[in-house]
């Protein structure tokens, strides 16, 4: 699955993406290469987070405080040279 990651203005969050097929919010925090997948997030919630005046506050209120921490998972991200830097291909570590 390839998901577009959007850079956002936030003191803690570097970029956010959305996987419509899996209904997962993808988040990369500042200073960390890892992308975290938050399951069960609607497109409307994603839109509300990225368009909020404070992305971090919206993420905390609408996602982080709602999704059980044990459901959040790290996603292996593959970035290929021919892909623009704002596109990531995520895998679950299972070979195709």
Describe the 3D structure.
The chain is α+β, with helices and mostly antiparallel strands. It has one domain (2-90). The chain has 2 helices and 6 strands. A 6-stranded antiparallel barrel has the order 1-2-3-4-5-6. The mean pLDDT is 83.
Tell me, rounded to a whole number, the average pLDDT: 83
Largest beta sheet, briefly? 6 strands, antiparallel, barrel
What's the total number of strands? Answer: 6
Q: What low-confidence regions span 5 or more consecutive residues with pLDDT below 50?
A: none
What is the gyration radius calculated from CA atoms? 13 Å
Number of helices: 2
* Structural class assignment: alpha+beta
Shape: globular
The helical percent reads 10-25%
For the biggest β-sheet, the strand order reads: 1-2-3-4-5-6
Q: How much of the polypeptide forms β-strand, as a percent range?
A: 35-45%
**SSE series:** EEEEHHEE
Number of domains: 1
Detail the topology: elements first, then pairings.
Blueprint: E1 2-7, E2 13-19, E3 24-29, E4 35-39, H1 43-51, H2 55-64, E5 73-78, E6 87-91
Antiparallel strand pairs: 1-2, 1-6, 2-3, 3-4, 4-5, 5-6
Helix pairs in contact: 1-2
What keyword list fits this structure?
2 helices, globular, 96 residues, 6 strands, 20% helix, alpha+beta
Explain briefly what this protein structure is:
This protein is an alpha+beta fold and 96 residues long. The chain is built from two helices and six strands; from the N terminus they run E-E-E-E-H-H-E-E. It has one domain.
